[in-house]
Amino acid sequence: MWGSAIWPVTLECGDLGLRPIRYRDRREWTDLRIRNAQWMAPWEASNPLPGGDLPSYAAMVRSLNQQARQETALPFLITEREGLRSAPAIAGQLTVSTIVWGSARMATLGYWVDEARAGRGIAPTAVALATDHCFGALGLHRMEINIKPENAASLRVVEKLGFRDEGLRKRYLHIAGQWADHRSFALTTEDVPEGLLTRWLART
């Protein structure tokens, strides 16, 4: 089983944090998703089964927590502190999923960020924090991010962080009601011997 240094864990860089998602975050998370519904609609994962719906918030958290116990996922919320006396607010979500052990030692990372906070470096910093944690604490070797070619904002994130473009995956994920092509980006530990966060902060 994972130790406490791996999960549950809180990761921080300045006012930005990554922490485990909780049941009691439902109201704040739901309000944020409602405000961002139009912003996220073109990139929203959907259920390919006929008449299938996405899970409720509670079902999502339950499933993510089960995956964490099985050591196949790290379900984080992205938080931002907006003042010295304020509690961190939810700024988005980041999930490390499909963790594979054995000879592969790899994972897939996905994220979304509040539209009102986009363009301020939150997403690349969060991705760098999570990737370093996976490479360091978990001992993973490869991190992969898959993005729709039309998602310019997410493409800028992986480009800023130096993820390698490994080509197109046809009809890779069910997004917004249809199977969608994705571009696959990856980093391995050899690509960032100094750590991804260190490299990213040196550029900002």
Structural notes for this entry:
- The structure is a single chain.
- Helix content is 29%, strand content 31%.
- It is α+β, with helices and mostly antiparallel strands and 204 residues long.
- It has 6 helices and 8 strands.
- The longest helix has 15 residues.
- The chain has an 8-stranded mixed beta sheet, with helices on both faces.
- The relative contact order is 0.15.
- The mean pLDDT is 95.
- The protein has a single domain, classed as Gcn5-related N-acetyltransferase (GNAT) (Aminopeptidase).
Structure in a nutshell:
Residues 16-190 form the N-acetyltransferase domain. With 204 residues, this protein is of the alpha+beta class.
- What percent of residues adopt helix (DSSP H or I)? 25-40%
* Regions with little confidence, pLDDT below 50 for 5+ residues: none
- The counted number of beta strands is 8
* Percentage of residues in strands: 25-35%
Mean pLDDT, to the nearest integer, reads 95
Structural class, by secondary structure, is alpha+beta
The domain count comes to 1
C-alpha termini separation: 37 Å
* CATH level-four homologous superfamily name: Gcn5-related N-acetyltransferase (GNAT)
CATH architecture: 3-Layer(aba) Sandwich
Strand order of the largest sheet: 1-2-3-4-5-6-8-7
For the sheet with most strands, the description reads: 8 strands, mixed
Overall geometry comes to globular
Please give the radius of gyration in angstroms.
16 Å
User: What is the fold named in CATH at topology level?
Assistant: Aminopeptidase
CATH class: Alpha Beta
- Spell out the helices and strands N to C: EEHHHEEEHEHEEH
- Tally of helical runs: 6
